[in-house]
Structure formats: structure tokens, C-alpha cells
Amino acid sequence: MVLLAIVLAPVLAHADRAMRFRVEVALLAHETHQAVLGPTSTRLFARIRSDLGVLGFEARSYCASAGCDIGPIKARIGIARKALRRKAMATVWSEMRALRRRFPVDLRGLLPLRPYGRRWREGRFLYAHLCATCHAAAGPQSPIPNLFVLARHERPADLVVEILAGVRGTRAVGYADPLSGRQVAALADYLTAPVRPGASGGPGRAAASR
Fold first, then answer.
1. pLDDT value, residue 201
2. Start-to-end CA span in the chain (Å)
3. pLDDT at 190 over 60
4. Could you report the per-residue pLDDT of 48-85, keeping only the tens digit for each?
5. Rounded-to-integer distance, Cα 44 and Cα 53, Å
6. Which of 2.40.50, 1.10.760, 1.10.287, 1.20.120 would CATH assign to domain 117-208?
7. Chain-centre distance of CA 74, in angstroms?
8. H or E element, residue 4
9. Residue 28 CA to chain centroid, in angstroms?
10. DSSP assignment, residue 111?
């Protein structure tokens, strides 16, 4: 998701170390699960490898600030890196899933999604100004996904984590000011809103009128 990479830098630049680390863990758990479910593209494989490197850095920063023992975390990351070199994605997913269970992301206030009302309208504004330029014209063969299609096939928690963490390896740059938690939830609301019958793009008027 190119849009989600746009969100990454500003949101996590101001987040506390615990939040940054937990979001990285959740992102990797989601990405490696995708790799287990289907064929691993070169792009996804490279992204997971890059994200594992970032996770190691975030783990050191988190434990330095929280005073925790980094040993068990480093051990799981090390196992995941070795498994990734063998392309044993099930093992990578198992290690990230174990870390996610120990360090869950607090998504209170972001979930459940509410694809209607005032928050939905704010999400529509954010999509129009931050995302539509690239994503609205994305075709079937484009590396840029249709965010509405993608959102319909992901768990709400995974979608929110991707908005928080983004996707590296793209040309997208961060904005100077971060999106608030409310704005992240609003954007997810809009992307998951019901689609108007016959529409190929985003949510229709039915959602807007609720």
C-alpha cells in the first residue's frame, strides 16, 4: 500500500518506543501470514526482510527505554531471519505471531470500525487528499493496489496496523504532521464502508447518508 507508507513516517516518528515496537511486530505478523497463505512475491519477500531489520532496531530502542530483557526478543528475530533465508515462511510467521501475542498493539479507540457518520466523512476527505491521486487510478496490473478492494480482504486490526506502520520500499514520503488516532480510524472506516452496487471505486452514497 503506497498510501500506508505515506502514513508511516509521521505517525511513528512521534509515537512512544513501545507503540513503535508493537506496531512493527504486528505488521510483520500480518505480512508473513500473507506469505504463508499464498505465493511469496519478490516484493513481499524483500519487504519482510527489510522489516525484520527495522524490528531489530525497534526492539533495542524499546528495551533500552523500558528496561526489558532483549534476549528472548533477539532470539525470535534471529530464528525468523534464518528461516527467511531458507524461505521457510511458516517458521517466520510462527516467531512473529509469538511476539505479537506477547506485545499486542493497543487498538482501543481505533476499533471497532464505524463505516458511517461523521468519522466516515472525515475518512473520505483524507482519502481524497492523501490517497486518491495514486490509488484511484490503479489498474489490475498496477503495483499500486485499489485500497477498497484490499480493505475488504483484510481483518480490521490488520488494516489499521498497516495504516499505522505503512509499507516500505515505495517512493511515498511522509507528511510533516502526523495523522491522529481518530484520523487513522476514520480512514479505515472509509475504506471498509459498503460499496454502492455497480460501483468500481470507493463507498457510495448509501454509507454517506447514514
1. 52
2. 28
3. yes
4. 998 899 899 999 999 998 898 999 999 999 999 999 99
5. 14
6. 1.10.760
7. 22
8. helix 2-13
9. 9
10. B
